[in-house]
Design goal:
Helices cover 52% and strands 12% of the residues. With 202 residues, it is an alpha/beta fold. The chain has one domain (3-190): P-loop containing nucleotide triphosphate hydrolases (Rossmann fold, 3-Layer(aba) Sandwich). Strands 2-3-1-4-5 form a 5-stranded parallel β-sheet, with helices on both faces. Helix 2 crosses helix 3 (49-55). The longest helix is centred in the C-terminal third of the chain and has 17 residues, at 147-163. The N and C termini lie close together (11 Å). The structure holds cytidine-5'-monophosphate. Residues 10, 32-33, 36-37, 72, 75-76, 79, 106-109, 157, 161 line the site of cytidine-5'-monophosphate (C5P). Cytidine-5'-monophosphate binds at residues 10, 32-33, 36-37, 72, 75-76, 79, 106-109, 157, 161.
């Protein structure tokens, strides 16, 4: 059992780093943002947030429509609700304890979900850099309008995620900070793998 907790603001590179770390060590990966996105998507259809969170099943996470910017905003709105967060805890903790090792990325993995994770990383980058990267990613899928809109979206979510009462976005005291502003993907992944190796992963 080995849990790697990777937290940080929107579009800092957590997803790419998490997948690469999971692949390197042979661990399973859970993008916990998808849980909140799945609940947010349900609320866009009129389902009450807590009801949607309680009814969530793993298959709901496979929907490619969850990646869009409207769903991201809806996700960060349901993510402030304590009952929504509480409904998602057991699934996340069970995933963290799986025998083959787990990498989980989100906002509160190292602070709330897995405070005893063997390795914790906090991945950041400047808001402008994050917006530019997210814009390119969304534009490639035909999902983004303009860079300005993506920047506004990223800032609105950061603000909501950092200032909520319940499990706010912040680095755990024992997290390794990785600023990816001046790193390319390979460099960021190498820094992350080194940090996780130093915490004892093989
Ligand atoms: O990581 P992603 O951008 O997909 O997350 C969408 C939203 O879900 C975030 O803006 C945040 O509000 C919420 N979230 C959270 N806790 C997590 C993961 C995501 O509150 N562990």
């Amino acid at each position: 059992m080995f849990c790697v907790a990777i937290d940080g603001p929107a579009a800092a590179g957590k997803g790419t780093i998490s997948r690469a770390v999971a692949q390197h060590f042979g661990f399973a990966h859970l993008d916990t943002g998808l849980l909140y996105r799945a609940v947010g998507a349900e609320t866009m259809e009129g389902v009450p947030a807590v009801k949607a969170a309680l009814a969530l099943v793993p298959g709901d996470l496979n929907n490619p429509d969850l990646r869009g910017p409207e769903v991201a905003q809806a996700a960060s709105k349901v993510a402030v609700i304590a009952e929504v967060r509480a409904a998602l805890v057991d699934f996340q903790r069970a995933f963290a304890r799986r025998s083959g090792g787990a990498v989980m990325d989100g906002r509160d993995i190292g602070t709330v979900i897995c405070p005893r994770a063997e390795a914790k990383l906090f991945v950041t980058a400047s808001a402008e850099m994050r917006a530019r990267r997210r814009f390119q990613e969304l534009a490639a899928k035909g999902l983004a309008n303009s860079l300005e809109e993506v920047l506004a979206d990223v800032k609105a979510r950061d603000d909501r995620d950092m200032n909520r009462a319940e499990a706010p976005l912040r680095p755990a005291d024992d997290a390794v900070l990785i600023d990816t502003s001046d790193l390319n993907i390979q460099e960021a992944v190498a820094v992350a793998i080194k940090a996780v190796t130093e915490r004892g992963a093989v």
